[in-house]
Amino acid sequence: MRPWNRLTLIACAGLLIPLQGAAQAHGGADDEITREEVEALAEEVGEEVEQSGAQQSDEQAMEQEIEEYEAKERLIGTLIGGFVPYRPTYILPYTYVDSPNQNPVSPRLGEGDYDTNLQDEEAKYQISFKVPLLTGMLDDRTTLWFGYTQKSFWQVYNTDESAPFRETNYEPELFVRHRLGWDLGPGELNAVAIGFNHQSNGQSEPRSRSWNRIKGSIAYTYNRWLFMVNPWYRLPEQDSDNDNDDIHEYLGYAEYIAVYKWDDDHVISTTLMNNLRSDDNRTSVELGYSFPMGERLKGFVQYYNGYGESLIDYNERMHRIGIGIMLNDWL
To answer: Which of 155, 122, 119, 102 is CA-nearest to residue 322?
Structure first.
């Protein structure tokens, strides 16, 4: 593990100071956070992370990765408005799809074929962050977060059709997470979360897709493994507003994530979904591998096989492989 450099933490604290006005507006003059206070917190967090790094063993590797991540959250969370990395953020300048979904279909809206001819090659990227809310109003283990994830598919090489964005999925959410740190079996139960999740593609009919969910999460670590189970319940909609009422038949009711980090720079991840049906069973899997590429960047290879990579393709099996750079990994 690369322990945080204390000077780096203090520099981060300095970058957060311009957000002080937002914190004052939230908490009043009595809650003013000075540069000295933030730098003191940076010193404290730096000492915690350095101590954990010095004690790292293979059995504790992922637990200490979680501690480092939570230390970053505590530092940035001292001021309302601080952005924290959430899900992976990456850019895949080149991906190949064996058969693009030229004619997406939904039960209510019917066919929504594209006016353009889609190419097999396109770019894909994802950005994801979260912002702490109600800082200091809950106990030190419980935080209210606003999260946002955006995933886009860009026909950048399709110059004959003016290189259009084929699909973009917008996913804002509001959730409460509680840190546990419970020893359970050979590993540790780290945290649980629950909240409201909206996902839509922002398109007009007949290619409109959206759904609202109550979504939970539970995280468990063991050795260099991180395991997450994210179950959800879809909130009912009126038939006249439901663009994809059969989405559960393809994506099921949860996603299952496993992440293995065997050193500072190499990470393998797997995300699995299954509709849990004995008849017409459908499984989707996403595999990712990130690796060092120079001193500051990480390369990233991703493979997807299944349904729901994007909302427009929720009921169409896709096979995709792409290569690019990872800007923010799972941990």
So the answer is: 122
Provide the b/e sequence for 244-262 (b: ≥16 CB within 10 Å).
bbebeebbbebbbbebbbe
Evaluated on CA atoms 42, 44, 48, 53, the torsion sign reads positive
- pLDDT in the model for residue 78: 56
- Residues labelled as active-site residues: 198, 200
Query: In 3D, which of 34, 52, 40, 47 has the Cα closest to residue 10?
Result: 40
Q: Which residues are paired to 267 by β-bridges?
A: 261, 290
Integer angstrom CA distances of residue 242 from 59, 206, 234, 246? 47, 12, 11, 9
Residues sharing a CB contact under 8 Å with residue 6, sequence separation 6 or more, in sequence order = 42, 43, 46, 47, 50
- Secondary structure letter of residue 242 according to DSSP: -
Considering the chain, what is the average pLDDT of its residues?
84
316: left (phi over 0), alpha (psi -120 to 50) or beta: beta
Asked, as a colleague might, if the bond just before 18 is cis with ω within 30 of 0, I would say no
- In this structure, of 17-26, 163-172, 204-213, the range with the lowest mean pLDDT score is 17-26
3-state secondary structure of 156: coil
**DSSP of 227-241, one letter per residue?**
EEEEEEEEPP--GGG
Calculate Rg over the CA atoms of the chain: 21
Closest CA to 126 of 155, 94, 157, 91: 91
Contact 169, 200 (CB under 8 A): yes
Structural domains in the chain, sorted by start: 6-76 (no CATH), 84-328 (2.40.230.10)
- pLDDT, tens digit, for every residue of 52-78? 444 455 666 777 777 777 777 766 665
Mark the binding-site residues for Ca(2+), compressed into ranges: 162, 208, 243
Residue type, position 266, single letter? H
